[in-house]
Hints:
Helix content is 37%, strand content 15%. It has 328 residues and is of the alpha/beta class. The strands form 2 sheets. A 7-stranded parallel β-sheet has the order 8-7-6-9-10-11-12, with helices on both faces. The longest helix has 20 residues, at 103-122.
Amino acid sequence: MREGELPGLLVNEIGGKHGILHGHVAFLKKHFYLITMKEFLEDRKRMSKKVQAIYLWWHKPVIDQELLQSLPNLKVIANSGVGMDHLDLKLVASFGVKMANAPRAVSSSTADTGMALLLASARRLVEGYHIAMSSGMEYCEADILGVKVTGATLGIIGMGSIGYKIALRAKAFEMNILYHNRTRRKEQEEQAVGATYCETIDSLLQRADFVMVVVSLTPQTHKLIGKREMELMKPTATLINISRGAVVDQEALVTALQTGVIRAAALDVTYPEPLPRDHTLLKLKNVIITPHLGIKTDKATYMITEEAVENILAALNGLPIPSEVLPS
């Protein structure tokens, strides 16, 4: 099939640090003529007219006014995840370009990551691993004690599709579930997971043994969890963040962990990513940090690409976009 018979799809690169996965290329080529940013920049005059869609993988390529102005036939940008904070949605919309994310593909894997962090922190798995692997290991100290998960109270801030799947998992661990959300869930949804709605975040923070943050990064949620919020938490509580790093005030978190305001933290996200190698958070024993593993499973990443293709093809054919994102 000649390249002209397929719509052009701009991607950052294939493979590499910020490229689409090699295993996804064959599937994408069934539907699109792939154009990398290198190819685009080397032959901008010819390639600019071919590009009808952009697939962002790990926030790349960067979408700015210059790029948008150079793509007269661009119709849609598909994102490989839920969070859209790396895009100027109003700018993109001003060019008449549609936008879509991939909420269906990522929710289960991200929920799994949240529960994995909760369990690892509660049972001190990382610390235990280092003890077990140490050259001088003879026995485990009796005071290497974790905290019990069964029967503990989990507070979920943000009960969208990911937050609800976390609640489903927490129910299996016989946890008491509190949640705060902009919109309260239906009564039958609450009953299905045994969740209790909290009108305010403060009420949730004061009662939870584990606080899981699962919100999108917006101007309203930037540093949503700061010094005041951490001081409302129990000194035995653990903060888990699987949303975006900037939702938590990291300076305040460092102080809270150092001074015993809260027991521990487990973070799949930070700002920046990765943290500078001399950052204090990397030196504290009561914090677990993972490198934004939320969606990173083989099946989830492939499902993300499938969802992106579905969204792009709908946009190019003038059909409703299943996961369209509108500027607020």
